[in-house]
Amino acid sequence: MVVLYFVAALAVVVPAVAGPLLAYGPGSRLARSRLVTKPREAVAALVTTLGRPATAAVFVLFWAALTVAVFWPIGLLAHSLEDAVDWPVLLWVTDRRNPAFEDFNWFYTALGDREPLKRVVVVAAVVFAVLWRRRFWIPLLAILAGFPLEQYVQAILAEMVDRGHPPTGLGTYPSGGIARIVMTFGVIALFVALTWRMRRRWHVALGTVVLVLATYEGFSRLYTQKHWLTDIIAGLVFGPALFLGFAVAVCILAGRYPRPESPAEPAAAREPEAVGAR
pTM of the predicted model, to two decimals? Predict the structure, then answer.
């Protein structure tokens, strides 16, 4: 039982520490690498040719297809590890659950369910639509679109992998609860950053909070035995991966990617830095 408490603590501490370290370390280097600059040039050319709304839509469809292509074989691998990894972990957790701690985890894990997050999404879309004034349609469209995007991409993967679920729950591959938290609160954090001028450390702090919420959601799904362990691990990668592409598409739509000063960007399409202030 003590070991499970320790794992629960790690589910909070590890992402809280790893988030800033990744953002200021590999994240900074990646942002300056050719791996990022080349796609930026391609997107800038598409924006010039198609305009921002069409480019954002194309990018979302491309990223969703790429995500499915990457996580399909990962799902097959997870399925093959069911007997070796998932069943032993499930039985180990079963023997060490505590009723009081279980009640807390059942309460927390509901955060990743569809119904409460639907309400969060609607409220956030309305709030940011009001804040963005004449450009209200951007947060309204983007925030509302993130929820079904995650749902259908995850459903496609679940159907393609078809690995079933643990006997104690109905969770499928990859964990949708984790991915929904990342997409929902990640998009809200993104619009906070797009609406108000903030230093980079606040951007990192917002991303770290979302990472902590998602990671503990993974632990709660394990503790309440709603998912196999491999579903949870995949969800912790799938959610951020899907969000990354969606965030880029939102920034394209909002005029923040590529940066307005990009030479490939037509002058008429340039937007002020604080796009939510208009």
Answer: 0.89
Would you give the distance in Å from CA 203 to the centre of its chain?
15
pLDDT tens readout for residues 133-174 = 999 999 999 999 999 999 999 999 999 998 888 988 888 899
Residue 100 token pair: 């009081």
The span from the CA of 119 to the CA of 19, in Å, is 27
Burial class (CB in 10 A: 0-12, 13-18, 19+), 32: exposed
pLDDT at residue 33 tops 90:
no
CA 211, chain centre distance (Å): 9
Sign of CA dihedral 132, 195, 38, 244: negative
Tokens of 50: 């198609």
Helix-then-strand count for the chain, H and E: 11, 0
Return phi, psi of residue 265, to 5°.
-85, 125
